[in-house]
Structures are given as structure tokens and as C-alpha cells.
Amino acid sequence: MTRSGIDPIPPEISDSPRWQHSLRDAVRDVHELLEILQLDPLDANWVQPGADEFPILVPRKFISRMRKGDPNDPLLRQVLPARDELEEHLGFTKDPLQEISLAKAGFIEKYPSRALIITTSACPVHCRYCFRRHFPYETQLASQNHWAGALAALKSNTAIREVILSGGDPLSLSNRRLRELVAELETIASVTTVRIHSRFPIVLPERVDRGLLALLEQTRLKTVLVVHCNHANEIDEAVRSALQQVSATGTLLLNQSVLLRGVNDDVDCLESLSYRLFDSGVLPYYLHQLDRVAGAAHFQVEDSKALNLIADLRKRVPGYLVPKLVQEVPGELSKIPLV
Ligand code: SF4
User: Fold this and answer.
1) Nearest to 28 by CA among 47, 8, 56
2) How far apart are CA 301 and CA 261, in angstroms?
3) Which of 10, 97, 237, 301 has minimal CB crowding within 10 Å?
4) Residue (of 12, 86, 16, 96) closest to 49 by Cα position
5) What is the Cα–Cα distance from 288 to 336, expressed in whole angstroms?
6) In the 8-state DSSP scheme, what is residue 146?
7) Which domain holds residue 122?
8) Is residue 141 in a domain?
9) Could you tell me the mean pLDDT of each successive run of 10 residues in the chain, 339 residues long?
10) Residue 283 lies inside a defined structural domain of this protein
11) How many A from CA of 188 to the centre of ligand 1?
């Protein structure tokens, strides 16, 4: 019998193509997105990215949570390429966290006791503020050579207890490939925890299929899933149900958000988000100040405003629903709290 009563079926048998079909069917054209949302393409501040730029990618089920006719919808703002992206701003660079110099074939030892594996370049959605929007995935994928470089590095450094699967989005990998990787991690005695950073359960909750749940439940490793949700409107009933199923596997569920101007930079939004997450079995973990990546300056919120927002939020919700306001600073051994 398993912890949550899920059948112990082999993940490769239970791989569902449904989420892959939804990804193939995602919107990749600005004009189509505007048409679905009944917005006038002549009215607004958007551009179609060029072939060599960060393309638009939005699954239709995520679009269905946006308000029609509202160019300021908070979910739309996260995915619609704005004309502001073309402006250059001092301090906003292609590699804001200086990861390129730290990464060795997709393996990053940024912090003591934890290491991060860049598993894939693929994502369920393209977030315009993403700090890896310019990341050179073509030279930085640990999946090349069946993870050999990353696994060798983990075996040689027994201080690393926790392995963070990142990307792109690691849940872009099939259950079979995920299980292969997790099985390799299980053979390394010093590794106790696998942490998955993913936006899939929020954007495409059907990714939480039986195979993935079985994998989370059956591994000997402690499992942590850190989802990425910025606004309460992202969580509908399907998302809530998927998160609750993950929680039932014994996986610790946390959320990290990015503080984004025009998306979630008011206390009502942050309060609704905290309560909606909690209702889905997720604790608000981090609220990140924006990483200064080129093309995202229009999302930046001043530190003074961010601090006031957290102070106001603290008056409204219990302490365990107040995320830590942090900024990632290249070269520091942990994220830097702003409060
Ligand atoms: S899903 Fe995550 S990695 Fe992918 S574009 Fe969005 S923020 Fe970046």
C-alpha cells in the first residue's frame, strides 16, 4: 500500500500524452492570442518577437483563465511580449545571476549542500520576466550523456544533500526520463532530497498524472515541489486538485512568486494568492524581487514599495502565509532577504 493509496503502476506505462498534446497545441503567435482574448491588435503595447528572440508560448488552458477584453489582465501581462522589452536599461543584462560562468554542462553548485541540474530548455509557458530567457541552453543541458557529468559531480561531493531539478521546467521531461534520473540520484547515498522547480502544475495541471504521482511517492528521496504562481487567478479547480494530489504523496509543496509591476504589486493580490495557495496545500515560500534580466525592466517594483507590501500583508494573514521577500545576488551563498 502506498502513502496516498495511488496504484504503484510503472510510470512508463502510465505516461499520459494529454499534457504533451496541450503543449503542442499552445499558442505561439501574438495575434492569435489577442484574437482569443478579443483584444484589438492596434490598441496596445505589444510586439511579435523575432525568430531569434524569446518566443511567445501560452497553453490554451492558461489563456482560459484570463479575462477577455482586458489588456491589463495579470496573467496576460506575464506572457504577452510588450514593446517595453525592446528598451535597454542600465543594469539589466542577459545573465543577471552570472550563471553562465558557474554552470558546468548544466550543473550548478551555487550553494553549499545543494546543487542544481539544468534538465531541459523546455517550459510549459514563456514568462516574459524569466531570468533565463537568454540562457544558452544549447551548451548547458545536463541531460546530454545521460546526466553523466552531473552524476559524477554529485558522487564526488558528498556535502551535497539536496538536488534541485531546474530548467527550463523539469516536468517537461517524460515520466520515464524523470524516473531514470531520480533512480540515478537514489544510488548516491549522500543525496537525501530531490527538489523540483516547476510551473507545470500551475500552467498545465494535467501534467500531474498518475505516473508522476507514483514517482513522487515511491522514491526513497524526500520530495519537494516548488511551484511558481504569481496571481490567485492562476489557480482554478483543476490546479487546486492537482496540487492536492501532489500533497497526498507526502511531497512538501511550496510556492515561489516574482513581484511584478502590474501583475501582483498590491496587497489585495498578495493576500488572495497566499490564501488560494494554502487552500491548495501550498505554502508561500519566496516572493522574489525581479532578477534584472534584459527585456524585463518594465516589471520592476521599487524595494521600498516591496517592503511596504510585505509589511501590509503581515497585518492581514498569519505569519506562515507571508512569503520571504528576497533578492538573488550573484556570488552570495544564499538569497538575500530584504526584510
Ligand atoms: S516556466 Fe520558469 S523557466 Fe520557464 S519561462 Fe517561465 S519562469 Fe522561465
Assistant:
1) 56
2) 6
3) 237
4) 86
5) 10
6) G
7) 93-337
8) yes
9) 43 64 96 95 80 90 97 96 91 85 79 90 95 80 77 94 94 95 97 98 97 97 98 98 98 98 98 98 97 94 98 98 93 77
10) yes
11) 29
The CATH number given to whatever domain includes residue 299 is 3.20.20.70
Q: Determine if the pTM surpasses 0.85.
A: yes
**Hunting for cell 537514489 — which residue is that?**
186
Calculate how far, in angstroms, residue 74's C-alpha sits from the geometric centre of ligand 1: 16
Q: Is the CB of 130 under 6 A from ligand 1?
A: yes
Q: Does the CB atom of residue 132 touch ligand 1 within 6 A?
A: yes
In a domain, residue 82? The reply is: no
Asked if 124 contacts 169 with a C-beta cutoff of 8 angstroms, the reply is yes
- For the Cβ of 165 lying below 6 angstroms from any atom of ligand 1, the answer is no
Question: Does the CA dihedral 287-291-294-300 come out positive or negative?
Answer: positive
The answer as to whether 41 is a domain residue is no
The domain total for the chain is 1
Assess whether the C-beta atom of 207 lies below 6 angstroms from ligand 1: no
